[in-house]
Amino acid sequence: MEANSAVSLLLALSVIILASRLGGSIARSLKQPRVLGELIAGVLLGPTLLNFLNWDIFHGVDLALTVGELAELGVVILMFNIGLEVNFEELTKMGRVGVIAGTIGALAPIALSMPLLMMMGYAWQPALFTGVTLAATSVSISAQVLFELGVLQTKEGNALLATALIDDVLAILLVSLVVAVTAAGGDGGSLNASDLAVVMLRMFGYLAIAGAVTWFIVPRVVDWLSEIPMVTQAYGIPAIAIVLMLIFAWTAEEWGGVATITGSFLAGIGLSRTKDHIHEAITENISVIAYGFLVPIFFINVGLGADLSGFPLVALPFALLLLFIAIVSKVVGCGVGAHITGFNRLESLRLGVCMISRGEVGLIVASIGLSVGVFEYDSTLYAALFLVILLTTLVTPILVRWVFTDRKQAPQLKTKTNPA
Keyword Transmembrane helix: yes or no (predicted)? Predict the structure, then answer.
């Protein structure tokens, strides 16, 4: 009797989601970010140790493609959720430091890592994508630590939220540009000036049009639809939100030639501007689907794609060098940006340290690089990058607690902020 792939998938998904929850819960009990436990669970399930997708119980069914497609849907809804959580009030409070520190903090990792990798013989595509991966920041990890320490409602806490927002937007734009250029360049990966101009025009044209639609039209239309009883019943508004997320994700790659996460992120930003009760209903319902089902598949799948068992020990110094660049570029880049805007040395150091973790955003960028074939011919580079993301996620809570040892020097602000 031929094996039923759908039945095998049911068991595989149950293992993935259970492992994700267990890994995340263990990490939180050890006062570490949940994402760290989920990544480690994925590594253990993957070819590094258990290689569970190839267990005999699955009767030889190839589940990697289906799990990968669900993981891609997971990253789309994850970036949609990040867009939903964008708080522009926080950006305006610390707008100057956010723009300057976020920009320098996003460009510094690229400026430090890309020339180094090209000197080591890497092509410009993997070198640039490595830099873009290191440019990303996971605000949720540092914000959660600051919240636990009771210092999120401080000057540094507000600056973190604004700086991370700018950083993430720049990272998404850079990812979109690299993906568009790589795709247009074909197997050779080279473009002449006219081809590059077309790619840039297509990308920025899409961003301008889609951005305008999500900013001005989407919130007004959804607010209007929410007043129609026939639409609002039976989870109508969350369903509309999902439809918009999927459409914008599709148009991003199909029309703009950029990553699907760009479209879903824009859709999330647009829906973040709806009325408070609508925004709350969308966020609550989408979060259940995202964090209860699809996002765990994404995190575990990232671990499944990293075979650390074959990671050569001779490449460990290279991974540690990338880790050094990852830490220094954020501390110095964001710190200098903060100092320029009037922060003192301690405040600048604190902001820089809070920006170290790459977390889920770094994973998103790295996984896109893997999916478009940038890391296809060098699994060592991807494994090293994965290790760096893992380690920055691990050390950030420790370093944040250390720089905030003297909390009296981080006075609380009267403004209210929400933990990410």
Answer: yes
Q: Are 310 and 34 in contact (CB under 8 A)?
A: no
**Nearest by Cα to 232 from 294, 189, 277:** 277
Where are any strands of DSSP class E within 173-305?
A: none
- The set of residues, in sequence order, having a beta carbon less than 8 Å from that of 401 and lying 6+ positions away, is 145, 149
Cα distance between residue 320 and residue 328, in whole Å: 12
Task: Return the bridge partners of 154, or none.
Answer: 412
DSSP string for 103-161 = HHHHHHHHHHHHHHHHHTT--HHHHHHHHHHHH---HHHHHHHHHHHT-SSBHHHHHHH
Q: What is the pLDDT of residue 46?
A: 92
300-324 average pLDDT score: 85
pTM above 0.85, yes or no: no
Cα–Cα distance measured from residue 146 to residue 173, given in angstroms and rounded to the nearest whole number: 28
CA dihedral 202, 205, 211, 213 (to 10 degrees): -110
Three-class SS of residue 85?
A: coil
Domains, the chain, ranges and CATH?
69-298+313-409 (1.20.1530.20)
Contacts (Cβ under 8 Å, ≥6 apart) of 351: 97, 101, 156, 159, 160, 163, 334, 335, 338, 343
Cα gap 226→228, rounded to integer Å: 5
